[in-house]
C-alpha cells in the first residue's frame, strides 16, 4: 500500500497556481465501509496515514475529497510546534493559519485521545472545520480537549513528521507537502 500512495518530486509553481483552493463543500467520495490510506509526500520524506470513516465519516470524506482534488499539493506545514503541544499543522492555502477551502463543516464526536501519531482537524472554534489538519507528533492528550475531530493515525513516517522544521508565525521556512495521495486500503 505504501507504494500506492508514494509520489516523488514536487509540483511546479505553475501547477500549484492551477489548483482550485475554493469549494462550496466536500462532495461525497468515500465508502464508509472502507479504510483509506493517505501518503503525505513531503520534502523530508513520506508520512503514511490510515483514515477510518467509522470514527469520523464527514472528516475522512472531507480530507479524501480535498486530496483527490490536489488541494494539499504544494501546501506547507505552516505551524510546527514542539512545546507546549507537539504538532505539525498544514492544509492552509494561504500558509498563515487562517485559510481554508471556502466552506466549514460540523464537528464530529471525538473517539480517542491526541496521542503521538493521531491526526485531527484544526479549527478556530466549534463547527469551523475546513482543510487544516494536524499530526500529533507527541502525546497531547492532557493539553487538548475533545474539540478537534480525530480521523486517523500515522502508520509509517511518524519520525518524518517529528523532524519537520519548527515554525510558528513565519519564524522559519516551512516544509512542503509535495503531494497528498489517497487510496482505499480495504
Overview of this protein structure:
One of its GO terms (molecular function) is peptidyl-prolyl cis-trans isomerase activity. It catalyses: [protein]-peptidylproline (omega=180) = [protein]-peptidylproline (omega=0). With 186 residues, the protein is α+β, with helices and mostly antiparallel strands. It has a single domain, classed as Cyclophilin, CATH 2.40.100.10. The chain contains 3 helices and 9 strands; from the N terminus they run αββαββββββαβ. The protein has helices spanning 13-18, 57-68, 158-162; strands spanning 36-42, 45-51, 75-76, 79-81, 87-90, 118-121, 133-136, 150-156, 176-184. Strands 3-9-1-2-8-6-7-5-4 form a 9-stranded antiparallel β-sheet. Strand 1 (36-42) and strand 2 form a beta hairpin. The chain is globular, with a radius of gyration of 15 Å. The mean pLDDT is 93.
Rounded to the nearest angstrom, the radius of gyration is 15 Å
Biggest beta sheet summary: 9 strands, antiparallel
Name the overall outline: globular
Mean pLDDT: 93
Order of helices and strands: HEEHEEEEEEHE
In CATH, what is the homologous superfamily? Cyclophilin-like
**CATH class descriptor name:** Mainly Beta
The proportion of residues in beta strands is: 25-35%
Adjacency order of strands in the biggest sheet: 3-9-1-2-8-6-7-5-4
- Low-confidence runs of at least 5 consecutive residues: none
Q: Give the tally of structural domains.
A: 1
- Enumerate how many helices there are, as a single number: 3
First-last Cα distance: 10 Å
CATH structural architecture: Beta Barrel
Name the structural class.
alpha+beta
CATH fold-level assignment:
Cyclophilin
Number of strands: 9
Quaternary structure annotation: single chain
Helicity level, as a percent range?
10-25%
Amino acid at each position: 500500500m505504501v507504494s500506492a500512495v508514494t509520489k516523488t518530486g514536487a509540483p511546479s509553481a505553475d501547477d500549484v497556481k492551477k489548483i482550485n483552493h475554493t469549494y462550496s463543500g466536500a462532495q461525497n467520495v468515500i465508502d464508509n465501509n472502507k479504510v483509506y490510506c493517505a501518503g503525505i509526500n513531503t520534502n523530508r520524506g513520506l508520512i503514511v496515514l490510515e483514515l477510518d470513516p467509522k470514527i469520523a465519516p464527514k472528516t475522512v470524506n472531507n480530507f479524501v475529497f480535498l486530496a483527490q482534488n490536489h488541494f494539499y499539493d504544494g501546501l506547507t506545514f505552516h505551524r510546527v510546534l514542539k512545546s507546549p503541544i507537539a504538532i505539525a499543522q498544514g492544509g492552509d492555502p494561504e500558509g498563515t493559519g487562517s485559510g481554508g477551502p471556502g466552506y466549514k463543516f460540523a464537528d464530529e464526536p471525538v473517539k480517542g485521545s491526541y496521542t503521538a501519531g493521531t491526526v485531527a482537524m484544526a479549527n478556530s472554534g466549534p463547527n469551523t472545520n475546513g482543510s487544516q489538519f494536524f499530526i500529533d507528533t507527541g502525546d497531547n492528550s492532557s493539553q487538548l480537549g475533545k474539540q478537534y475531530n480525530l480521523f486517523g493515525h500515522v502508520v509509517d513516517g511518524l519520525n518524518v513528521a517529528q523532524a519537520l522544521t519548527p515554525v510558528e508565525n513565519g519564524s522559519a521556512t516551512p516544509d512542503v507537502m509535495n503531494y497528498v495521495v489517497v487510496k482505499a486500503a480495504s
